[in-house]
Design a protein that fits this description.
Length: 647
């Protein structure tokens, strides 16, 4: 209440309404060590209704995390770790970035799945070294959002028994009492999903909350929903129970009235010593972790290889020599030169990665065969069919990455990235190495027509900060894309593949080694000095660019630049970039079967983009490409015009 008032900004209602629940959970139930927020076997806690962030910051401070009272005073201020919504990596104890409602819930499902997979892999008789729960608090808004339906349904089907959701059932959202627009029987819905449901728990009765949480944690056969009835803004005598306390400071008069009603005599930000001592969980947390460490040390003595593997994976380190098989695949593909759909190239890459990367875990939103996401020999412990749940799947992948111990990826068609867009954005914001596989990358997918043919999606992805977007042209570039995605530690990658076959491009050793730099000279001009023009292309359109350059060979000297990853290219030093795209060369053409606007910054005012700025059409892939202008003749004509314009 005081922090929100000091900031004159924030959401006091949920933290005040959930305070009684949080006290029981964090002081009596949660298995954690404030001195080591990254302890591998800690319980995970997610505040899905992230607007209630002061609740989380308060319990982190009170239980002994490195969140000072000055941090609390700086709530919502510039560069403060106590941001308006919890941000992963900014504040100790924050497990995931939440705020867009429902995603924290889906992250928690991913965390619970990761716990199960790791337990199945590493636990041995007498040694439950992976044995923790995932707790998530979700409000009415979270459970209205479709992503929570997707994730809850799958969690029930999978029987994720160590997942416990505390439902903050206060009946209020921003617009007021939810009974006008949210009347479904939430407990019945979760029971239909296969969850155990504990109904009508008084969220302001500590004993009732403690009994419910103990019952929830007593069995592991299925996930549990604990329905706690609370009063939003509890303690504010004139505003509690109303939308007035949802998203605005209470005001000085109401704060004073709440202090009197709650019999709280301490000034703002001062906590009596005896309460600090009662809340401090550092000693108990350290004891829990010591007990676990003793167990793990005995585990290491009996299972040294498993222990070393567990530590490596939880540290996020890749195994020695992990890239050997995929590097060999790239070299072999360069030598063989066989045409192949890049989605199948991707599948080959996954098979190579799986040889040395046991933490690889994949899945697809009901498109396994079409996406090529299941590799030969993949077991059910390595692969999951998510069903038609693009958003839930992507948010669960983020949760698995945040949990640690796995390198997950998920696949769907590129056009359906739109369903999962916000999960991709949050992965980029959190700087976590989630991998998103998107196939059927252009109108060349054919007869399914404009509903399935992506146009603007590549631009959407490329304009997302910190997201590495790879669109390879053949198996060689696909292998480099996968290697780069797995090697990346500070952000997600989107790997975009074709449905149709593409030719393997001839490369010299210098070009082969330059692929990882994101953009490189694939076809070098014949004479020394600057070429007459440069054509930039990605994916299947690299073949168009090469054919156009060949068609112009008798009249113009054309350089072809393959640009599988703009992000990687722009990260190179200026000397390299200028060597690939000479600044003085204004005759530039970009070719991609997607919206042309993104490429304007590369071709300038004098150049042209051969792209598609309308929705597609239902026809065989080749016919669709030709009808929408993706032809060698159009590339040739564009090059001629730019040369004439700049000569």
């Amino acid at each position: 209440m005081d922090a929100v008032q000091a900031a004159n900004s924030g959401h006091p209602g949920a933290p005040m309404g959930l305070a009684d629940v949080a006290e029981v959970l964090w002081r009596e139930v949660l298995r954690h060590n404030p001195a080591d927020p990254r302890w591998a076997d800690r319980d995970r806690f997610v505040l899905s209704n992230g607007h209630g962030s002061m609740l989380l910051y308060a319990v982190l401070h009170l239980t002994g995390y490195d969140v000072s009272i000055d941090d609390i005073k700086a709530f919502r201020q510039l560069h403060s770790p106590t941001a308006g919504h919890p941000e992963f990596g900014e504040c100790p104890g924050v497990e995931t970035t939440t705020g867009p409602l429902g995603q924290g819930f889906a992250n928690a499902v991913g965390m619970a799945l990761a716990e199960r997979l790791l337990a199945e892999t590493f636990n041995r008789d007498g040694f439950p070294v992976v044995d923790h729960r995932t707790w998530v608090i979700a409000g009415d808004g979270c459970l209205m959002e479709g992503v929570s339906h997707e994730a809850a349904s799958l969690a029930g089907t999978l029987g994720l028994g160590k997942l416990i959701c505390i439902y903050d059932d206060n009946g209020i959202s921003i617009d007021g009492e939810v009974e006008a627009w949210f009347t479904e029987d939430v407990p019945a819905r979760f029971e239909a999903y296969g969850w155990r449901v504990l109904r009508d728990v008084d969220g302001h009765d500590g004993d009732a909350v403690a009994r419910a949480l103990a019952e929830a944690a007593a069995r592991d056969d299925r996930p549990t929903l604990v329905c706690t009835r609370t009063v939003i803004g509890r303690g504010a005598p004139n505003k509690e129970g109303s939308a007035d306390v949802h998203g605005a400071a209470l005001g000085e008069d109401e704060v004073a009235a709440a202090r009197q009603r709650l019999n709280w005599g301490s000034p703002p930000f001062e906590i009596p010593t005896h309460l600090k001592e009662e809340w401090d969980c550092r000693a108990a947390g350290a004891a829990r972790q010591r007990d676990w460490q003793d167990l793990f040390d005995r585990y290491r003595a009996e299972h040294p290889e498993l222990a070393a593997e567990f530590e490596r994976r939880m540290a996020g380190e890749l195994p020695a020599g992990w890239s050997g098989p995929i590097d060999a695949l790239a070299r072999q593909a360069q030598d063989d030169g066989a045409p192949l759909e890049t989605r199948k190239s991707s599948q080959q890459c996954l098979g190579a990665l799986a040889e040395t990367l046991p933490e690889l875990f994949g899945g697809s939103a009901d498109l396994t065969g079409s996406n090529g996401t299941r590799w030969k020999g993949a077991t059910d412990r390595q692969y999951l069919s998510y069903g038609v749940r693009e958003f839930g799947m992507s948010a669960m992948v983020n949760g698995m990455v945040l949990h640690g111990g796995l390198r997950p990826f998920a696949g769907t068609f590129l056009v359906f990235m739109e369903y999962a867009r916000n999960a991709v954005r949050l992965a980029a914001l959190m700087k976590i190495p989630s991998v998103f596989v998107y196939t059927h990358d252009s109108v060349a997918l054919g007869e399914d027509g404009p509903t399935h043919q992506p146009i603007e999606q590549l631009t959407n992805l490329r304009t997302t900060p910190n997201l590495a977007v790879w669109r390879p042209c053949d198996t060689v570039e696909s292998a480099v894309a996968w290697r780069s995605a797995i090697d990346r530690r500070d952000g997600p990658s989107a790997l975009v593949f074709t449905r149709q076959k593409t030719e393997c491009q001839a490369r010299d050793q210098a070009a082969f080694e330059a692929i990882a730099r994101g953009g490189y000279v694939l076809r070098t001009e014949r004479r020394s000095g600057a070429p007459d023009a440069v054509v930039i292309a990605t994916g299947s359109e690299v073949g168009l660019a090469m054919a156009a350059a060949d068609a112009l060979a008798d009249e113009l000297d054309v350089r072809v630049v393959s640009m599988p990853c703009v992000d990687a290219f722009l990260a190179q030093d200026a000397g390299y970039r200028d060597g690939v795209l000479p600044p003085a060369l204004r005759a530039r053409v970009a070719v991609e079967a997607g919206h042309p606007d993104y490429w304007c910054k590369f071709v300038g005012l004098d150049g042209e983009v051969v792209g598609i700025d309308r929705f597609g059409l239902s026809a065989p892939g080749g016919v669709a490409m030709e009808t929408l202008g993706m032809t060698v003749d159009n590339v040739v004509a564009a090059v001629r015009r730019t040369v004439q314009r700049t000569s």
